[in-house]
Amino acid sequence: MPQYWVVGAMWDGRDDQYEVFLRGGYWYLGWEDDDQPTQARRRDQITKGDCIAIKRMLGARSREIEIRAVGVVRKLDKKSKRVYVNWLRRDVNKKVPARGCFSTIHGPFSGSDPWTTQVFGEDIGQSSVVITEEIGNLAKGVPEGARKRVWVNAYERSEVARRDCIAAWGTTCSVCGISMRDIYGTLADGFIHVHHLVPLSQIKAEYIVDPVNEMRPVCANCHSILHRRDPPHLIEDIQREMKKTANKPIHATPLARRS
Ligand SMILES: [Zn+2]
Ligand SMILES: [Zn+2]
Question: What's the CA-to-centroid distance between 242 and ligand 1, angstroms?
């Protein structure tokens, strides 16, 4: 089970690191370890797959804090003491009871605590758990042949990863720029594939997917073309090919059946 952490991003109450952390995909404790040994020890308990939330203080007397972003820890760098995070929900701006979270780092909180659900949302824990488990199964014994045939990988099938990818990128195809809804109308509501940019051969068993930076929405046609090769084509390669055919007319209406 993941542990849950609530952390700050405001140094000295005014120097806001939020954008730096979100853009860089990490968080770190803004104190020297010697100055804040207790907080440094808490930070050192963070492990891969844990969930982490950035909070904002709402004044010294407030009983609430504001949650700004939540994510899943994907890597720990001992040297720089950075905690690398997939920030899954940004600009959440939700007020929750403070629970004494007035220092830079608080935790570990348990996922079974209702307050944790309030802070992190219903299913953030699954973003790490579900995906690591699926990958575990995949790494364990799916024969090579089957892996090739079932080319949509565990991440691409994961509902949580899908949802986070679409929340970040929308439902327009990242290859051809078409929205399936523009062609099929309401029949295509909510229908979009997601494609994982990291080849499966580079993935290790306990890898945690970053649905925002490592996945893209793609239409079903482009997705099939991407996977006509293993490792898959790059999106840019397909776009380059498509430029060559750009002047040819596309049949916008179905062809009549040949008699
Ligand atoms: Zn497409
Ligand atoms: Zn794919």
Answer: 11
Does residue 258 fall inside a structural domain? no
Q: Are residues 137 and 57 in the same domain?
A: no
Residue 199 has pLDDT above 80, yes or no: no
What's 25-82 look like in SS3?
A: CEECCCCCCCCCHHHHHHHHHCCCCCEEEEEEECCCCCCEEEEEEEEEEEEEECCCCE
Q: What's the gap in Å between 230 CA and the centre of ligand 2?
A: 10
Q: Ligand 2 centre from 16 Cα, in Å? A: 37
Total domains, the chain: 2
Measure 82 CA to ligand 2 centroid, in angstroms.
Answer: 31
CA dihedral angle for residue 88, residue 91, residue 92, residue 94, rounded to 10 degrees: 150
Spatial CA neighbour of 30 closest among 137, 96, 105 = 105
CATH code for the domain of 20: 3.10.590
Ligand 2 centroid distance, CA of 225 (Å): 9
Answer whether residue 255 is part of any domain: no
**Structure tokens that stand for 62 in this block:** 């407030």
Cα–Cα dist 41/37, whole Å:
6
Alpha carbon of 223 to ligand 2 centroid (Å): 6
User: Where in the sequence is the domain holding 101, given as residue range(s)?
Assistant: 4-121
Neighbours of ion ligand 1 (CB under 5 A): 173, 175-176, 219, 222
- Tokens representing 175? 């290859």
> Is 112 in the same domain as 134?
no
151 or 63, which is more confident?
63
154 and 184 belong to one structural domain: yes
CA of residue 170 to ligand 2 center, whole Å: 16
Position 36 pLDDT exceeds 50:
yes
- Model confidence pLDDT, tens digit, residues 70-79: 998 988 999 9
